[in-house]
Amino acid sequence: QQQVKQSPQSLIVQKGGISIINCAYENTAFDYFPWYQQFPGKGPALLIAIRPDVSEKKEGRFTISFNKSAKQFSLHIMDSQPGDSATYFCAASNRGANNLFFGTGTRLTVIP
Amino acid sequence: EPEVTQTPSHQVTQMGQEVILRCVPISNHLYFYWYRQILGQKVEFLVSFYNNEISEKSEIFDDQFSVERPDGSNFTLKIRSTKLEDSAMYFCASRQSGLDYGYTFGSGTRLTVV
Prior knowledge:
The complex is a heterodimer.
Chain A (H helix, E strand, L loop, with lengths): L3 E4 L2 E5 L4 E7 L7 E6 L6 E6 L5 E4 L2 E6 L4 E6 L8 E7 L8 E2 L3 E6 L1
Parallel strand pairs in A: 2-11
Antiparallel strand pairs in A: 1-3, 3-8, 4-5, 4-9, 6-7, 7-8, 9-10, 9-11
Chain B lengths: L4 E3 L2 E4 L5 E6 L6 E7 L5 E8 L2 E5 L7 E4 L6 E5 L8 E8 L8 E2 L3 E5 L1
Parallel strand pairs in B: 2-11
Antiparallel strand pairs in B: 1-3, 3-8, 4-5, 4-9, 5-6, 7-8, 9-10, 9-11
């Protein structure tokens, strides 16, 4: 059972453009939704996270939009830069499970 | 900035051999985890550890796997008899207690079973 579905699998964006990655979840008990950034050969690094009591969270060029009724959340990267080229994973968790369920990842390539 | 440290970075082992992957979590973190990532696939939960015992484990974490916190700083994952399909990147993670769900992942150990 795939708890978190992520799309697209890969994404190519021009420098300065907006990158959008989408995720959907099934378990309504999830109450924590982080996004992780992973560079080749490195572990996932927390980028930004949101809880379901807000619909949007912004940190610098990164914004999470959250739609509780649709059970969907997305990551927007504004003014995308070549240094943003990495694999991005959405994830979800709830306090009872005490572990993260990851999406399948999106490989983002930002072209100069 | 505090880091989760994993050793070795790469381990090659023969099928059937035992391997031990080592991790040093962040010192004031109380929850410890092992995740794995088969090449090109998603990160999968293996096991969580709190208060010196396993708090949760996935279907992947069968009898071939075990975890231990032998002292106040190290956290280990042992695979007793490795299979080819155990080849993956293994990530250790830790987090503080309370409402902060901020996991910190290590850089991983690439395990290759031949």
